[in-house]
Amino acid sequence: MTAIPFDHLLSLTDHKGTFEHALLTVPRREHGYCVDDMARVLVVATIEPDTTGLMNGLAGKALRFLNDAQSFNGACRNRMDVGGHWTDLPTTEDHWGRCLWALGTAAAHSDVSLVRKLAVIQFDRAAAMRSRWPRAMAFAAVGAAELLTVEPGHRAAVALLTDYVSTLDPPTGDAAWPWPEPRLTYANAVLAEAMIAAGVALERADLRDRGLDLLEWLVGYETSDGHLSPTPVGGRGPDDAQPGFDQQPIEIAAIAAACGRAADADPRSIWPETVLLAQAWFNGANDAGLTMWDPATGGGFDGLHADGVNQNQGAESTLAAMATMQLARRYTPVPL
């Protein structure tokens, strides 16, 4: 099993949290921290099998940050400035969903009992709320499904998943464009992943299979000449030319995560193969043929353009690269 370097992630992190942005490799402290990234930190730190004191320390820091972000009713702030002051009000937008995703993942995977216990307490608080945003609910549903793998029947998780399923529109019935939205936008794969996760957790084979079918369509739509070609920042509709730029590493990580979950529910080879395509995208098998991370430090580059790479190594892109590499290790043959 190949070790993943965490050097750059640690260099972006101080005693409060992980800075959101970087100028090349230098943290841009003036932009502060956000729950979106600290949720990703908690996931990466707690699913890492080669845990160390540093990883456990990162998990504890992320857990404290997410706890401080929550209000008493479960809604969540997102942004903290470098002085440690929250700059926004609690809401149930995407960061709330990512918070629940991370807490459920930590409860299921951390090897530190206190982290698992605190993650469940925080999950219960946040799970009292609901969101009108589809991706927020999808992230929250994935977290609830993770929690149910270690606490079957957990009341708040079951209720959240049940309410999530009730928000889903029926299938479009359009074989050419089965996607539940008129355009692909961002974090697309989590919509399919949440269906798979909820279908498995609630023993709803129909919902699991719908998620698998949507994910298979998305993988096919975002594959070109044997490599991944993800939806760019501006989105992608049925009549848009491909490839599109600027491509974001977080889209690749979302595809990898969804395919990793699909592989646990369906034995077909498409899922591990796509996880390895996601790894290959970071290593240069992409529309520009350019490497999208620094394997010496673990830093991820912020965007892929038609004419080059955005060399800044912010937290989101770094964590996207790390999460993808973590998943890819499951499916990489061990040398004899």
From TrEMBL:
Keyword Transferase appears in the UniProt entry: yes
Keywords: Transferase
Single annotated GO MF: transferase activity
Name under which the protein is recorded: Glycosyl transferase
Organism: Mycolicibacterium sediminis
Taxonomic lineage from the root: Bacteria, Bacillati, Actinomycetota, Actinomycetes, Mycobacteriales
